[in-house]
Amino acid sequence: MAERGKPAGSDACSGRFALWRGRKFPKFPGRFPRRKTAPARRLALLALALWSVGAAHDGFDRFIDATEIPSLIRATSPEVRDRNGTLLRAYTIDNGRWRMALSPDQVDPLFYRMLVAYEDRRFYDHAGVDPVATLRALAQAVRHGRIVSGSSTLTMQVARLLEDGTTGQWQGKLRQMRLALALERRLSKDEILALYLGLAPYGGNVEGLRAAALIWLGKEPTRLTPAEAALLVALPQAPESRRPDRHPEAARLARNRVLVRMAEAGVIPMSAARSDALDPAPLGRQPMPQLAPHMADRALAIGPGRHDLTLDARLQRSLEDLVRRHRRGLDPRLSLAIVVAAHQSGEILAAIGSPDYTDTRGQGFVDMTQALRSPGSTLKPLVYGLAFDRGLAHPETLILDTPVQYGRYAPQNFDGLYRGELPVRQALQLSLNIPVVRLTEALGPAHLMAALDGAGVEAVVQGGAPGLALALGGVGVSLEEMVQLYAALARGGDPVALRWHSGTQPARGTRRILSPASAWQVGNILAGLVPPPSAGPPGRVAYKTGTSYGHRDAWALGWDGRHVAGVWIGRPDGTPVPGAFGGALAAPLLFEALGRAAPRLTPLPPPPPETLITSRARLPEGLQRFGPREPVPALQVTFPPEGARLEVSGGAGIPVKLRGGRPPYTLLKDGAVVATGLRRAEFTAPLSGIGFTTLSVIDAEGHSGRVSVELR
């Protein structure tokens, strides 16, 4: 028990305080003094604070790094471009939207400056979220009780576009901030800008800067005026309420606000802002380029993405306009097709498959550059070239144009006339059928088919093996293949596979089909043809026309020293076109197409050194005439028959038919001349009177035939 006057437990503590006996403690007024914190403790607290901050930072980093980023690769519209990169045609993506691929060098630098200055002037300084703009937006929202200004950076807008999220909810904002911070860690600023330019909405089904520039401005964004750049900056803020096609005034006002802000920020001069503000805003959508639709469809069939063709957009546009103009006034069921190529490289520079791709009555959707049609007389130059090569004929060789029959096949000339013996040069220029059939019979149709195959032409023959009618168009070929064949003639008999796509294309193998001398002789003969009216003097273009059986196809093909071209006119369904002739319909288009391919026609090449250029009299005896000398048949009047009674009332005359002889013919009645200069073997005799009459016909060599008839 404790002693009185001593506190309990004092004995236990006495030993502890014994050490302090005799020491003096400082006196503190009013309260017990607080001991000072040791330096070590302060350092510990600081370390703890730093560790906490670091741990929080590391946790935040892990939080941001764990952000799942949506796919950055988005589908873009397939594009078809010409040899210079000009857009020929584009297609919408699967959801019907226009979203065009865009590279940074395709954008006017002025647009970049205006976009950053207007949308996010601290874009290059922040890490995806602008704290200054965020605090300002929060303060204004608290003060006004609603959102007054936005705080979205360009990176946050990209985040929203990638997630297809909303803009008005704070939850969405927080999610966009997280994704924006993650994007900034994984992408460069330029890559983020590229995403924005590719995904920003511009109203309707238009996404991305390039599609917007093409549809709202009708141009690429490479060069923009301040007004154009300002419009493209303003539209994504409210793409539907500022659509130029529906709300042109709202688009204009929004554009002008951007112009004023840019002038105040020093991006553009104030004078430029004032003058451009007076420009009217676009009032509607501009049509996307639709050049070479058939060729673009062929490219798209290869696969999606970008396709660079060998076409020249300038020439393609010019020839499409030419074909549409030429079509006016013609049968609406008619179609026209043109192919123009550079025959040295084989590159197709223009290809028109029909006058109007959307025309259903004329079946404009059918690409007539690829359709199989009868080429008419346009294969004749190849037959003559093969005959020259094999020593069967020379341009000055004489050949017979007289009736001939091979089994049941008896060819006739298109006009029904016979010229007798004439030079091969003239036979080709007149496009006579009988001489070329004679040559084909000597060559063999199989050799002609082999030459077509060597030129890369996949000729289709109906009904088994090819016959002599092959030389007159009895085969199916396409316009593009015929242009390839004529390119071989232009190249001295050395074929070239026509190319239309800059990428690798499977092409049929080609081999030389004619010697340079024979090919030149064919071209020299064709260059001597009289060109269509207003096409200039002869000798500048080697060309050949053709008309298929039944007037179903009208053709013209030819070349100068640089280009080769082909024209086809007809109905896609193959029905006849009465009165259609290659010389009248297709030849003028051919010359105009070649004239538009270059400022001036390139001269045809000179003859190769080995070319035999001489008169017929100086030719070897075997080349002076083709085949054995055949006697000219005696002239006969086959109708009317001897003793016939004929009605001549009404002055209509009577029909007369001849066999054999050589035109021109002279007709006599009872010894008196009735008509002269008759060149057809069938004609109508202008006879009158009644009674017994003797009709006589005399040919160019004095042969005669006569019949006696009774006129009633």
From TrEMBL:
Reaction equations catalysed: [GlcNAc-(1->4)-Mur2Ac(oyl-L-Ala-gamma-D-Glu-L-Lys-D-Ala-D-Ala)](n)-di-trans,octa-cis-undecaprenyl diphosphate + beta-D-GlcNAc-(1->4)-Mur2Ac(oyl-L-Ala-gamma-D-Glu-L-Lys-D-Ala-D-Ala)-di-trans,octa-cis-undecaprenyl diphosphate = [GlcNAc-(1->4)-Mur2Ac(oyl-L-Ala-gamma-D-Glu-L-Lys-D-Ala-D-Ala)](n+1)-di-trans,octa-cis-undecaprenyl diphosphate + di-trans,octa-cis-undecaprenyl diphosphate + H(+)
Residue ranges of every copy of the Glycosyl transferase family domain listed in the record: 93-262
Transmembrane segments: none
EC number(s) on file: 2.4.99.28
Domain Penicillin-binding C-terminal: 633-708
Pathway terms, separated by semicolons: Cell wall biogenesis; peptidoglycan biosynthesis
All residue ranges annotated as the Penicillin-binding protein transpeptidase domain in the record: 337-549
Pfam family for this entry, one: Transpeptidase
Keywords annotated in UniProt: Carboxypeptidase, Glycosyltransferase, Hydrolase, Multifunctional enzyme, Protease, Transferase
PANTHER family reported in the protein's UniProt record: BINDING PROTEIN TRANSPEPTIDASE, PUTATIVE-RELATED, PENICILLIN-BINDING PROTEIN 1C
Family classification: In the C-terminal section; belongs to the transpeptidase family.
Listed name of the protein: peptidoglycan glycosyltransferase
Gene source species: Ponticoccus alexandrii
